[in-house]
Amino acid sequence: MRVATQRPELVEAVVCVGGPPVARNAFEGAEGMASSEVVVNALLDMAQADYRAALRTVITSANPQMTEDEIRTRVAVQSEYAAPDVSLSRLRAWTKADSTEHSKALGDRLWIVHWPGFGGGWFPSGRELREVLARALPESHLVQVDDGMVSRPDQTAVVRRISSATGAARS
């Protein structure tokens, strides 16, 4: 976000897949666990006490389509890949992060990809997510895909559509 706002000639568009690029307080009053200080602090406490349990909580909530074996495998792979202290640091940084102003500055160069059930309850979804983002980032594009980008590689074509749209707009 910062590079795109500070050096627009280097970044034609930003495609955001995952958490919306706004501060958690943008979701105040909306459904979603990310807006609850109590819930976020409980996750931080859990991650510090039992890293794998916290991973399991996040992976399970964000991937309701996964079987128990798939969840177990994902937790094992993720815990091997990302050390607990690094992940906990990143989680703490996320709780304080606020890229709202950079996101606003991008205007129509910001594309936010979401899907039904987006965020596994951590963020609002559907109409409520669109309303929150319309208030916070009125010029951004909100693109809905069928379901998760990672679990549905065929859905990544949305990035090509965005590239085409931005390229055509700048030509």
- Count of spatially separate domains: 1
Task: Report low-confidence residues grouped into runs of 5 or more.
Answer: none
What is the overall shape?
A: globular
Strand portion: 5-15%
Secondary structure tally: strands: 3
* Widest beta sheet: strand line-up: 1-2-3
- The average pLDDT value, as a whole number, equals 84
What string, H for helix and E for strand, traces the elements in order?
HEHHHHHEHEH
The CATH class turns out to be: Alpha Beta
CA distance, first residue to last residue = 23 Å
Question: Helix coverage percent of residues?
Answer: 40-55%
CATH topology category name: Rossmann fold
How large is the radius of gyration? 17 Å
Please give the count of helices. 8
CATH H-level homologous superfamily name: Alpha/Beta hydrolase fold, catalytic domain
- Secondary structure class reads mainly alpha
Overall CATH architecture: 3-Layer(aba) Sandwich
For the sheet with most strands, the description reads: 3 strands, parallel
